[in-house]
Structure formats: structure tokens, C-alpha cells
Write a structure and sequence with these properties.
heterodimer; A: alpha+beta; Cathepsin B, Chain A; twelve-stranded mixed beta sheet; four-stranded mixed beta sheet; 25 helices; disordered N terminus; disordered C terminus; B: mainly beta; Methylamine Dehydrogenase, Chain H; six-stranded antiparallel beta sheet; five-stranded antiparallel beta sheet; 35 strands; about 10% helix; USP (chain A); EC 3.4.19.12 (chain A); ubl conjugation pathway (chain A); thiol protease (chain A)
């Protein structure tokens, strides 16, 4: 339906054709101040903590998952500080020297000139196929000055471009995902410009070198990427620390550790304090309490988590989802609990509570759910409301600070109808410039209530997917509210109106109404598929004549809304073309998932039993039996596995000198993937490693240089029928048709190989709780 | 996937549908009629009801299982968009253009039957003075006795109105006959849905057919209230507040209306809640979305509002919890507003008058509950939600307790005389949108509370002070000193504040006498930790619809709810447990 609309309006725009685009170019050759710049006025001198930098990020074709997460992490203040300061901060002068070459200022009028040129060319040449989704026979639409695409293009052409270069050696580390993240953060912090566009090419190169999963230009899951990134950072940091510990064994922990200031006493890990900063921020501890209903004995087991994945229900709240997460679960029938005390399988009650609250609570809303009847992952458009502040109800009795107050500071929004395509953006509360929308290259200020547009019930397929809450205090909250009051006292126009966007009450309809009266406007803009992303900040409240019409009717001549044109191609979901093949894969995915479930459950049980072993001999015997059974099962499974997987193992990415460590950590991080059950991860993986095709091309994917840019172009012909997303940026159009080209995923292999390694002490997983899977009879 | 219907011929602009759909509402094609369904199996609510056995005591009563049976489900028709309304089409989900306003359907009920009045629990007669009593500028001109019986009506006829604010008025063809034939003690209901405002006769056999439907052009009515003091069989005073800030005073029997705060001349932010001042024929309070409470007089003309400089002595105290931009004591009372108080820049979600008509409980989007002595224009206490904004508030019939509901999915019970939190009630799965006491199920010791929320649920709670589960003792010991603060720097300051608030509370807890004394400063209470607060479970929780429920009301013989999309549901009370009142 949405595709239908955008197509309609596209052709709409086409009706009003090219003449208009050329005209305004001459008029407005002076660059206009953007909404972001407006909000950044009176910032004073450049700060050295990076809190006053607002950079967009270039999208290299479906890399919005990466961009949105990187932005969220950058504005996670303690995380940014830790990244910058670990192992030590690069001296500013050397940073500046590096930046001198990396930061490229552009002609602020570049886009206008380019546009004029393009307009001239357009008259003669046939429309380029750049506009994916537009059938080639349709005349190309003129560009909508308020469309995000246009704004992104302008941003890329006019704003300072920041290339990041590998600077790892100056940190005394080998190049890794962490060092390239640090490269990005440091360059942004050191930049003399407050706004610009980062090209995270180097970061992506490293990511793709290390993780085959990200080598294609396919849509990736943002939450999965967040988890992988955090795990990688931990692993990279710890690897380096161990390396140093080896070389300078006698030396005490480095000084920089203390200078970090944020490190609290070690929580008992063996790794040096200095490397604990990711743990200190994102890590929390879950206790699963199991109460045997026969002997009433309560047994506990602790697990650490980096984020929480919660199941969703229609018409619920995040609070309720978290409560459900911790709700009591009966272990009975096939799921009986092996009680240590009474020695046997017993009915039991189990619940998961939070024992140690993280400082940053990353909440993953499980919007992608496997549905049996459709045989695939489906996106849930449940209305799940999230408040600006949060406390956790599901804490243990002995939890420290159980009433900790959290504030929402970042939301990753997924836009799209399904898990395999779409677009990610981030909406982030910055330290002192309010909420901003980060949509790849585009950074725009938004109203606080804008954050509430993504509960999931609005048309447009945009839903909050990952929520970042950080700890705060009541004092801080009240101070902020007082400031909002103060701002309103001084600020004139905004009154209460700006607040109305997301709340049930919206601004007076009078304004909506007045949008119909086409005001005379300097910049004509045409109605196209997208409309300004930025709120009209102060215009809202003003009298109608001030108002920028949200409904962008561009010239009086233009027919308001011609009827919808016939839809050229049916808006089938992108994955449909090879139906049988697809279903086959699905089935396989499902099968694999089920096996995985079993295996995981078995594994868990085994872990548990391992602990109990010393106590009871008969139990030990049982355990041995179980293990045998497991091994049998594993062997069976292994025999079923594709040869691909083995091949992939051999061709798995380069390992650093400390490959064994790295691998361990990855397998840990993979654990999450497979534990996040009917979610993207598993099935994604299984989709990308299709059963029937032996994939010889895989190892040929160049390890270092991936021709990112070419990818979208190649697949253009395939892209056109994917409808619901055609309003998205062309870069983000689903590329899943390409998947047969993909190589087997080393991760898939890791799933099957790595589980032996995962100890019960160090589980780096995003914690998703699936009933009836956690234990097995 | 959203599938929109094909554009009908009437609206050449397909965007109209997008606008309607943007609210998540069914998109109307043409003006349709309300429908009523009588669910076969119904949606029974099973509740343990206390049957009082002579002695008015909880302990001696029997609890029987009562079943509230769903009588009917009246679906209000959502009107189609106004043809001149240029709705926004915006396929961009990231667009920040404003969406058409809605707050769901709310009902105002009125009955002339004295037997249907809720029981009162006040020990003494209401002695509260009139608002603005001391101000001679507000002294009402003497009214001739003859006119006193004849209520003054608004000036303009709404049917013949040429105002661009009112689109049209649809009266039922037999409305005159229906009005004359009806049971004079029946219940009228007034309901807002989208841009329509409907007048229904709930005692009529054809209650789904409206008596009058007013369609507005631009604005959506968000809240409304009927004056209990002036109601007669031939006169009802209704005020309603709109999304544009405009307020309408409407008299349905004569179809007359008047506009107040026309074009937002006094305050142009949406009206979130509106109530007649208890005991006043002419005055009402409206809360606006920009954190302002305004007292209007229906009889007074509008004038451009210029803040009157407040007392310099007030300013000494720094930022006050209440900024009096116009006091009721101002000598300038020729025009509206009577008084104008700025509480915050946060949206005021709702407010409620105490039964003794002296106090006002106001809840805001910033999560605060503010108790006001509105007669003196003072804020007495500020409480905070556990987290998130507060949405709804009400007083117990005896004025001892205040219940709030909010974005923490909790109902919170506060003691008014003790000025402290009593219990948190956990049971909703989403935000709580409306809360009400059931005065027919309350007595001196026990209280029945009902609540509805975005989780489409209706919950009932029984609350009595003696029955509260206190949190376990060792929790108290271990967490007594712990607050929500973790940063070491602010710990001390917070504790200090908490202590001072504690002292404050102690001094307050002597009773209500202090209310008459001097209050120099507002008491701001810290959030009580979970381990020190009693937790109350619901006695009943039921999903009653498929869309968020936004209003709840108790009547002598029934419970009523209304939902976002216009479902008005009525449950009959169990017949076997009639409680004398």
C-alpha cells in the first residue's frame, strides 16, 4: 500500500516536470541555514569531549544498521569517553595533523551547481536508472527539496567529509573493530567542524574482513550488529591487554586505567580492570531462580547480559514486556527440572530476575517473529509503548539500587515490512541540543514527542526496535524539566504546540487546515513520496502565513492529487521470486532452528549438570548418558551438515596472532545469535547459506576490499519490484535477491562447533528468554 | 501491512484516508450511523462482591461472586474528514508533520434522577467558599428571583450557525418526540469522537441513534463536562474543550452555543481536560497542553490575555511551583480569564476536584501529581510517579485518597491527610488511561477502584488500609537509606532533601488542620522505593476490547467504558448483590 502511494505521488511529481527545478537554482545560490545549524547556534567554542559534534554517516548500501548503531554508541557519553580514552587519548596535535588530510571541506554550493548541471542534462538524456523502483519508462521525477534523499545528497556534497584512517599503531594496538571505532570517534571529536559526514569505510572494511556475514550488501539486523560490536570491542580490548600482559608481565596495570575514573572495583573477572569498561556500562546480571515444587529448594544461576531481548504483546508497554520476561514459568511435563536436592526430574517454577542492573540498558524489542503458518519471520507491528523514563520491576531482592531510574536516550527505528529489508534510523537525545534524527548522512533536530511516533501502530511501518536507556537521577530529570520550563518562558513561539506531535493530542487542526492554503514560498517544492523529516520547529505555532506547509503542494498550477496510476508491477515481497526455492530454504531454516533449540536446551542442561556432578554419583551417571546422547545427536547433525560449512571453516577469516582468543570471543558472541531464537539471526544465517547450492564463490569474496558501491547498481534490475520499501532510500532497498551469490557463513559453522567452549561464567549474550526451551527433560 | 480502501468518489483526494488512518482508526467513507451489538456470550466480569450484613464492616460481610454482564457495545460512527480539511498524505514514516488529534472517546453522563446520585461519604456539609469569594469585582450582580429559575442560555443557535468552526448539526428526525416521550430520569450521554460530538439518550430503546450530532470543521473536541448544579429537564450546561484550544459552551435542549477562548485568544494550546467548578453555575477550569490552568466564566467575553505582573514577594522564592499570571483576586475581572496559572511547561494530563471542593489534584506529563488549594491559588504538595508521565487522577468519595494512573503501568494510591504514598497497584500491561472510584462499592473502610488502559483491559481493585501487604521487614532495613540516586556526589543532597520532605510530611500528618494555616512552601516528596511501598493486586482483570480503552465510569446500575475507536460498553451490575447506599 505504501508503495502504491509513493508511486502515485512520484508520477504526480512527474506531471509537474523539470522546468521548476532549474529555476530556483539561480535564486538561492547562497546556502541556507539548515535546521540542524539553527539548533547549533550559540554553541560557543569547540569542546574537546565531542559532545558538540553532529555528523551524519555515509551509507554504502544497506549499511544503515551500522550507522544507526554507531550513532547511538557515540552519544552514549560514558562509552564514547571510554573509547576515546582507552588505552590512552591521542594527543590533539597529532590528531589534528591526521585530520588535516582526512577532513575535507567542500564547496557549500556544490549541490546547486551540480543540480543545475543535472537539470541541463536531464533535458537531453534519458532518465538514469539511479532511481531504483521507478520503472524506466516513467519519466524521472524532479527532486523534492524536502525529501530525505535530496537532503542526504546535499549533505554529502556540501558538508565537510570526514574520512577515517587506520590509526591503530598509534594506540599501540593492532587494527581491529575497536581501533576503527576509536578512529571514527577520535576524528569526530578532534574535528574543527561541528557538522559533517563521516565515511566509515575503514570501519566497514574491518567489519567485513572479520565477519563474513556482513560482507554482502544485504540488510542486516541492527541489534545483532550492536551485540556483535560490543562483544568485539570487549574481545579486542582484552586481546590487546593479554598481549601486553605477556610482554610486560611484571608491570602493574597501566596508569590510564585509573585516569578513566569510571572504573569501579573489578567484579571478579580475571581480565585486568582496564578492559572492563564495556562491562561496567552495558553488562548486567540475570539470576534464574528455579524452585523445585517437590522439595521447595530454590537454586540460582547467574548469567551476564549485554542487552535484554523481550517478547512483545499487542497493546503492551516496555514495562510489561520486561515483567513478562521475568514472569514465573512452570517447568513441567517435557520440561521438568532436574532437582539437585531431591535428585530427579521434578516440576519446578522458574523465573529470571535482574540481579545487577546495567548502567546502560539496551532493550531489544523482538519485532521479528517466526510464524509457523507463514514459514518465515514476520515483523510484528504491535503497539508497544515506551516511556521516557523507566525503572525495572524485575529485580532480585538483594539487587543493588533496585529502584535505579533510567532515561530513554536513543531509539533505533526499523522501517519496513519485514526482517529482510528496510531501513534503520536512530533518534538520539544529545547532551544539550535535544533530540536529533540520524538518518545516514542526514542529521535533523526533532521534537521530543517525535520519539513517540514509533510505538508501532502508525502507518509507515516504522517501529522502535532497540531502545537505549541510561541511568539517571531524579534530580537530573527535574533539572531538565525545569530547563524545559525555562526555555518555554524565554522562547516565544513554541508554547505547548511543539510538544504535540506524538502525544494523543496533536496541534490544533487549524494549522493542518491552513496547510491547504498554499502559502507563497520561496522554494517551490514538489509533492513526492517523502516529506520533510525535520519538524518545522518554530513554525508550528505561528499564524498560518508563517507556516511551511507540510503538504508540499508546489505550484498553484499543479493538480492537487491526480488519481493513482495503475500499479505497474505487483508489490510482492522481495523474497518471492523463487518461491519453491525459498520455501525449501525456509524449511531448512526451520529444521535447523529446531535442532538448534534442542541442542541448546541440551547444552544448558549439561551446563547445569556439570555443576552438580560432584555432589551425586548417580547424577553423574545420568549426565554421562546425556552427554553421550548429545554427542550422538551432534554427530548425527554434523553428518547432516553441508560440506559448505566445513569449507567455510577452512576459509574462515584471518585470525590475528591471538586467534584463539578472538575466536573464543566470537563464539561467545555467536551464542547470542543462536539463542535469540525465532529471530533474524538464525534464519538469516540459514537463508544466506542455502542448502542446495554448494557455494564455490564464497572464498573468492575479496577479503579486504569489498566493492560496496557497485553492489546496489548491479542489483538494480532486481530491486524494482520490491514495493513496500520503494519509498526508502534506494541504497536500502532489499537486496535479498542477491543472496545466492553469498558465500556460506562462517557463523553457521561456528554455531555447530563452538558450543563446547562456552563456559557458564562468561556468557555474552543478549538475553532473550524463550519459554520451554531453557530446559529439557 | 496496511491496506487502505480505494478512494471513494466523494473525496478526490486519497489523502483524506491517510489522515484518518494515521490515527489508527477505521477510515470512514460517508457519514455513517452508530451501531449497537449485544454480544451473545458477552464479556462477563466476575468479581467477589462484598454483601454487607447489617453492620457496616468489611469483616462481617460475605463475599459472593458477582457477575457483571456486558449488556451492549455501542460503536460510535467516526465521521469522515471534513471536505475542506486538507489532510496530510505522508508516506514517509519519519515525517514530523502533525497528525490529526485524537484522545479517544470520552463520555459525560447526566441524569436528573436523584436516586442515581452517587452516595456521599462526607461527614459534614461542604463549607468551601466560592472561588474568588473575597474579590468584590467578582461579586455576582443580584439576580431577580424570577430569572433565577430560568437558566440563561448561550446566544447563538448552533443549527443556524454560519460559523466556520461548526461544520453542521445533524438532529434526529424524531428527536423532539423522543425527548418528550423519554423517561425523565433516564441518563443522557455526551460523547466526542473525532470531529463529532454526539448527544445520546441511554435510556431510550434506540439508544444508538443520536439525538443530535454536531460536526466541527477544524477542531476535535477532546474533553467535556456537564454542570451538575444547573441541570434541569429543559437545560444542560455543557462545556467542551477542543484540540485548537477553543472552548464551546453548549446547551443541547435549545441548541444554543457560545464560544470561549475563541481562536485561542487566551490560550491557543489544546484543552486536555475541562471541569465546572463544583458549586459554581458559571465558572469552569480548563487545563491546556502547555501546562496552564485557566478559570473561565461562561458569561464573560474573551479579551486578549496579557499576564498581570505577579506579586514581587512571590518572585523572591525563585521558581514557584505555580506561576500566577492572573490571580482571581485581580481587580480586572470584566473579561475572561478569571485566573491563569502556569504550572509547568509540561502537558497537564488531567485534574480532579476533591469532594470537599477545596482542593485540586493535577497530574502532568512530567510525572508529577500536584495538590492545590485552588481557592488560595497555592500548590501544597508535589508527588512523583514511579517513573514516566501521569495520565489520570481521581479522589475517593470521602476525599481521603487520591488515585493516579500513568506511564509506569501503575495505579498509585496517595493518602491526602497523611500526604504520602499508600500503595502501588500493579496489574495493567500498558499505560493507565482512566481511573475512577465506584462509590456504590465503597464504604468507610474499603474502596472499590476501577481502571482502564492502553492494554484494552478493565481492572477492578479493592483497597482497604488494613489489608495492605506491607513489604517484608528486611527489605525496609536494607533499603531504607537507598534512594534512586547512585551518583555519589548527589547522594547527600538527596538524602537531605528526602529528610526535609520527611519532616515536612510529619508536620503535615497532624491532620488537615494545617490547611487553614500558613503554607509558605510547597512540599516536594521524593519517590518512595519499591521495597518500602505496599503493592496491591487487582481483584479482576479482563480484556474488554481490541483497542485501547480511554474512559471508565461507574453508574448506580452499571459500569461503562469507552475506547479509542468509539466502542461504548455497558456492564450491568450483578443483580444479586444490591448494596444499599
Amino acid at each position: 500500500m505504501k508503495g502504491l502511494f509513493s508511486k502515485g505521488s512520484k508520477s504526480n511529481g512527474a506531471a509537474t516536470a523539470p522546468s521548476t527545478t532549474a529555476a530556483p537554482v539561480k535564486k538561492e545560490l547562497t546556502p541556507q541555514i539548515s535546521p540542524l545549524e539553527k539548533r547549533l547556534q550559540d554553541m560557543g567554542s569547540i569542546r574537546d569531549d565531542g559532545s558538540d559534534k553532529f555528523f551524519g554517516m555515509e551509507n554504502y548500501g544497506n549499511t544503515c544498521y551500522c550507522n544507526s548503531i554507531l550513532q547511538c554508541l557515540y552519544y552514549s557519553v560514558p562509552f564514547r569517553e571510554a573509547v576515546i580514552n582507552y588505552p590512552q587519548r591521542t594527543p590533539l596535535d597529532s590528531l589534528e595533523a591526521a585530520l588535516a588530510t582526512n577532513l575535507r571541506y567542500q564547496n557549500p554550493n556544490a549541490h546547486l551547481e551540480a543540480e543545475a548541471l543535472a537539470a541541463k542534462q536531464k533535458a537531453s538524456s534519458p532518465p538514469s536508472a539511479r532511481q531504483a523502483g521507478v520503472p524506466p519508462n516513467q519519466p524521472q521525477k524532479p527532486e523534492d527539496k524536502d525529501s530525505p534523499e535530496y537532503k542526504k545528497k546535499v549533505a554529502l556534497q556540501t558538508l565537510p567529509i570526514l574520512e577515517t584512517k587506520n590509526n591503530a599503531t598509534s594506540y599501540g594496538m593492532s587494527e581491529s573493530l575497536f581501533t576503527s571505532l576509536k578512529d571514527i570517534f577520535e576524528s569526530v571529536v578532534g574535528s574543527q567542524s561541528r557538522i559533517g559526514v563521516i565515511r566509515p569505510q575503514q570501519f566497514l572494511d574491518v567489519l567485513r574482513r572479520e565477519h563474513e556475514m556482513f560482507r554482502t550488501a544485504m540488510h542486516q539486523d541492527a541489534h545483532e550488529f550492536l551485540n556483535l560490536l560490543l562483544n568485539e570491542v570487549v574481545a579486542n580490548v582484552e586481546t590487546e591487554a593479554t598481549k601486553q600482559a605477556f610482554s610486560e608481565k611484571a608491570l602493574p596495570p597501566t596508569e590510564s586505567a585509573d585516569s578513566l575514573g569510571m572504573l569501579t572495583p573489578s567484579t571478579g573477572s580475571k581480565s585486568p580492570n582496564t578492559t572492563r569498561w564495556v562491562h561496567e556500562l552495558f553488562e548486567g546480571t540475570l539470576t534464574s531462580e528455579t524452585k523445585c515444587l517437590t522439595c521447595e529448594k530454590v537454586s540460582q544461576r547467574d548469567e551476564v547480559f549485554l542487552d535484554l531481548s523481550v517478547d512483545l504483546e499487542q497493546h503492551s508497554s516496555v514495562t510489561s514486556c520486561l515483567r513478562k520476561f521475568s514472569a514465573e514459568e512452570m517447568l513441567c511435563e517435557r520440561n521438568k527440572f532436574h532437582c539437585d536436592n531431591c535428585g530427579g526430574l521434578q516440576e519446578a517454577e522458574k523465573r529470571m530476575k535482574i540481579k545487577r542492573l546495567p548502567r546502560v540498558l539496551a532493550l531489544h524489542l523482538k519485532r521479528f517473529k517466526y510464524t509457523e503458518d507463514l514459514q518465515r519471520l514476520q515483523k510484528l507491528f504491535h503497539r508497544v509503548v515506551y516511556p521516557y523514563h523507566l525503572r525495572l520491576f524485575n529485580t532480585t531482592d538483594d539487587a543493588e539500587d533496585p529502584d535505579r531510574l533510567y532515561e530513554l536516550y536513543a531509539v533505533v527505528v526499523h522501517i519496513g515490512g519485514g526482517p529482510y529489508h528496510g531501513h534503520y534510523v536512530a533518534i538520539i537525545k544529545t547532551e544539550d541540543r535535544g533530540w536529533l534524527l540520524f538518518d545516514d548522512e542526514l542529521v535533523e533536530p526533532v521534537d521530543k514527542n517525535y520519539v513517540r511516533n514509533f510505538f508501532g501502530d502508525r502507518p509507515g511501518l516504522a517501529c522502535a526496535y532497540v531502545l537505549f536507556y541510561q541511568e539517571t537521577t531524579m534530580e537530573a530529570v527535574m533539572r531538565e524539566q525545569a530547563q524545559e520550563d525555562l526555555a518555554s518562558a524565554t522562547g516565544t513561539a513554541e508554547a505547548g504546540e511543539a510538544k504535540q506531535n506524538g502525544s494523543p493530542l496533536s496541534p490544533p487542526l487549524a494549522h493542518v487546515q491552513s496547510a491547504g492554503q498554499v502559502p507563497s514560498h520561496d522554494t517551490p517544492f514538489s509533492p513526492i513520496n517523502r516529506i520533510p523529516t525535520a519538524p518545522q520547529l518554530s513554525t508550528h505555532q505561528e499564524a498560518p502565513e508563517h507556516e511551511t506547509p507540510p503538504l508540499s503542494i508546489q505550484s498553484p498550477v499543479q493538480p492537487v492529487q491526480p488519481p493513482l496510476p495503475p500499479i505497474p508491477d505487483e508489490p510482492t515481497p522481495s523474497l518471492s521470486p523463487k518461491k519453491s526455492d525459498f520455501q525449501l530454504r525456509r524449511e531448512k531454516a526451520k529444521g535447523e532452528k529446531e535442532r538448534e533449540k534442542e541442542r541448546r536446551a541440551a547444552e544448558k542442561e549439561k551446563d547445569k549438570n556439570e555443576k552438580l556432578r560432584q555432589k551425586e554419583q548417580d547424577q553423574h551417571n545420568r549426565e554421562m548418558q546425556k552427554r553421550e546422547a548429545d554427542e550422538l545427536e551432534k554427530a548425527l547433525k554434523a553428518s547432516k551438515l553441508d560440506m559448505n560449512d566445513l569449507g567455510a571453516e577452512n576459509g574462515s577469516p584471518r585470525k590475528s596472532g591471538f586467534g584463539f582468543l578472538r575466536r573464543g570471543s566470537r563464539s561467545i558472541s555467536q551464542r547470542l545469535n543462536k539463542e535469540k531464537e525465532p529471530r533474524l539471526s538464525t534464519s538469516d544465517i540459514s537463508v544466506t547459506a542455502p542448502v542446495p547450492e554448494p557455494v564455490p564463490e564464497a572464498p573468492e569474496v575479496p577479503r579486504k576490499e569489498v566493492p560496496r558501491k557497485d553492489v546496489p547498481r548491479k542489483s538494480e534490475s532486481l530491486q524494482s519490484p520490491m514495493s513496500p520499501m520503494s519509498a526508502m532510500s534506494p541504497k536500502d532497498i532489499p537486496l535479498s535477491n542477491k543472496q545466492p551469490l553469498r558465500g556460506p557463513d562462517p557463523l553457521t559453522k561456528d554455531h555447530n562447533v563452538s558450543h563446547e567452549k562456552t563456559g557458564s561464567t562468561h556468557r555474552w549474550r543478549s538475553f532473550s528468554f524463550k519459554k520451554n526451551v531453557n530446559s529439557v527433560s | 501491512m496496511f491496506v487502505l480502501p480505494p478512494p471513494p468518489p466523494r473525496y478526490t483526494i486519497p489523502v483524506a484516508y491517510a489522515a484518518g488512518a494515521a490515527n489508527g482508526m477505521a477510515v470512514p467513507v460517508v457519514e455513517t450511523n452508530n451501531t449497537i451489538t449485544h454480544p451473545e456470550k458477552g464479556c462477563p466480569l466476575q468479581v467477589g462482591e462484598a454483601v454487607l450484613l447489617g453492620a457496616q464492616s468489611w469483616l462481617t460481610s460475605d463475599i459472593v461472586l458477582g457477575t457483571y454482564t456486558l449488556q451492549d457495545d455501542l460503536l460510535l460512527a467516526t465521521p469522515p474528514p471534513h471536505p475542506s480539511e486538507a489532510p496530510i498524505v505522508n508516506p514517509n514514516p519519519l515525517a514530523t508533520v502533525p497528525l490529526p488529534p485524537t484522545c479517544g472517546v470520552k463520555l459525560s453522563l447526566v441524569s436528573l434522577d436523584p436516586r442515581k446520585k452517587p452516595p456521599t461519604f462526607l461527614n459534614s456539609a461542604i463549607t468551601a467558599p466560592q472561588f474568588g469569594d473575597g474579590n468584590s469585582a467578582l461579586a455576582a450582580p443580584p439576580v431577580p428571583a424570577k430569572d433565577a429559575l430560568k437558566r440563561r442560555k448561550p446566544k447563538n443557535n448552533i443549527i443556524k450557525s454560519s460559523s466556520s468552526f461548526v461544520s453542521r448539526v445533524i438532529t434526529h428526525e424524531t428527536s423532539a418526540k423522543r425527548l418528550s416521550d423519554r423517561d425523565p430520569n433516564g441518563v443522557f450521554a455526551f460523547a466526542n469522537i473525532n470531529r463529532a460530538f454526539q448527544w445520546l439518550d441511554l435510556s431510550s430503546p434506540t439508544k444508538e441513534e443520536h439525538l443530535t450530532k454536531v460536526l466541527f470543521t477544524k477542531a476535535h473536541m477532546l474533553c467535556h463536562d456537564i454542570n451538575e448544579l444547573t441541570k434541569t429537564s429543559s437545560h444542560l450546561d455543557i462545556v467542551m474543550g477542543s484540540s485548537a484550544g477553543d472552548i464551546i459552551w453548549y446547551e443541547p435542549m435549545s441548541q444554543k452555543y457560545a464560544r470561549i477562548n475563541k481562536n485561542g485568544v487566551i490560550n491557543n494550546s489544546p484543552v486536555t481536560h475541562i471541569k465546572w467548578l463544583p458549586g459554581s453555575e458559571n465558572l469552569f477550569i480548563a487545563s491546556h497542553a502547555n501546562g496552564v490552568l485557566v478559570v473561565y466564566d461562561k458569561e464573560k467575553e474573551d479579551a486578549l490575555f496579557t499576564p498581570e505582573p505577579s506579586n514581587p514577594s512571590d518572585k523572591e522564592n525563585g521558581r514557584l511551583p505555580l506561576e500566577i499570571l492572573k490571580s482571581v483576586n485581580s481587580k480586572n475581572q470584566k473579561t475572561n480569564p478569571l485566573s491563569y496559572w502556569k504550572l509547568a511547561n509540561q502537558k497537564i494530563s488531567s485534574f480532579s476536584f476533591s469532594p470537599d471542593q477545596r482542593h485540586l489534584a493535577v497530574v502532568l506529563e512530567d510525572g508529577s501529581l500536584r495538590l492545590m488549594d485552588y481557592l488560595k491559588e497555592e500548590v501544597l504538595d508535589i508527588f512523583r510517579s514511579y517513573y514516566g508521565g501521569l495520565i489520570c487522577v481521581c479522589w475517593s468519595p470521602d476525599g481521603k485518597y487520591i488515585v493516579t494512573g500513568g506511564q509506569d503501568d501503575l495505579l498509585t494510591i496517595w493518602s491526602f491527610p497523611e500526604r504520602k504514598i499508600v500503595a502501588r497497584c500493579q496489574g495493567h500491561n500498558s499505560w493507565v488511561s482512566s481511573v475512577a472510584f465506584d462509590p456504590w462499592r465503597c464504604d468507610q473502610k474499603t474502596y472499590r477502584i476501577g481502571s482502564v488502559g492502553d492494554d484494552c483491559r478493565l481492572l477492578l481493585w479493592d483497597f482497604s488500609v488494613g489489608m495492605l501487604h506491607r513489604p517484608r521487614a528486611h527489605h525496609q532495613a536494607s533499603t531504607r537509606k537507598r534512594t534512586s540516586i547512585v551518583a555519589p556526589g548527589s547522594q547527600t543532597s538527596n538524602r537531605h532533601r528526602a529528610d526535609s520532605a520527611g519532616n515536612r510530611m510529619r508536620s503535615d500528618s497532624n491532620g488537615t488542620e494545617h490547611l487553614n494555616g500558613e503554607i509558605d512552601q510547597t512540599a516536594s516528596h521524593p519517590v518512595e522505593p519499591r521495597s518500602r511501598t505496599a503493592l496491591l493486586p487487582p481483584i479482576m482483570s479482563k480484556i474488554v476490547g481490541e483497542d485501547p480503552i480511554c474512559w471508565l465510569g461507574f453508574q448506580k446500575d452499571c459500569i461503562m467504558t469507552s475506547s479509542l475507536e468509539g466502542h461504548i460498553r455497558t456492564w450491568h451490575r450483578p443483580s444479586d448483590s444490591v448494596v444499599k447506599s
